[in-house]
Design brief:
This protein has one domain. It has 6 helices and no strands. Helix 5 crosses helix 6. The relative contact order is 0.17.
Length: 89
Amino acid sequence: MKFVTPREAAEIDAILHSDLFDASWYVSRHLDVAIVGMLPEYHFYFYGGLMGRPASSRFGPDSHPDIYRAAVNTRHNPLSIFLEITSKN
């Protein structure tokens, strides 16, 4: 497993505890996550979000296209971006 910085750990924890991330839903839609044996929140944080995969039926590139574009441009997880923006409001 990759070394995780304290900031990454905090962002992964925020994703995991967000009502916009559904680990069971994510794995059921992306079977490769189960095959490689990676925790779904880690996969979404480091890979899935940047691949354009939705975090749940409530958060994805169709419902938040601007956030997903920003994620690609900044190489940062889209749900982390969204949670950071909404926490400031």
